Amino acid sequence: ENLFDSLCFRSSPLHTHANHTLELDITPGEEELLTNMRKTTRHAIRKAEKEGVTVDISIQPHYLSRFWPLYEQTKNRHGFVPFKRPFLEAQSREFIENNLGYFAIARHKNKDVAGAMLMHYSDTVFYYHGASIKLPSSIPAAQLLQWEAIKEAKRRGATKYNFWGIAPDNQPNHPFAGITTFKKGFGGRAIDYMHAQDYPLSLGYWKLWLIDSGRKKKRGF
Fold it and tell me: pTM to 2 decimals?
């Protein structure tokens, strides 16, 4: 930070990557990974299996049409600012269709109930987009979805599974606080990165700074 300050960079209003992430070493066997999870998470996975939840894994582009309705319901329920469908379609074309990632869709009683879009780079699979419908607590499909996504990452030869964004420990009211509790149930270690930095090249930068500052306020972080 001191180096960037000395070079006249400034902290960007918006993050362009996850500043705080959770990464799980997936080299141990499945039983050890399960043992290292929070007890309630492990129980939820077993319960979802008993309740008949199944998970489909695919690199087929048409899975985006199954993921998108779940994503829209998640947006409406939580009120976050979503990505546009053309953006997800472009990501699917460039990554998923080239086997640099995959979709995971959880089903219960022949209905899609949760989904994830995951990216695979080098030795790491990233849980990049997630979505679900509101389900009773007796149907913990999201936990099984993550577990099947982790097992697929192992089959692909990845050694790390990155859960993407989490809330900082000192911000209990952060918009990611709830999902952070969910993600940490699987184990792993938190990794903090430096916030994105801007280097103003012209006065036009300040117009963009105002726009991004407004977007930050709307997002809540």
Answer: 0.90
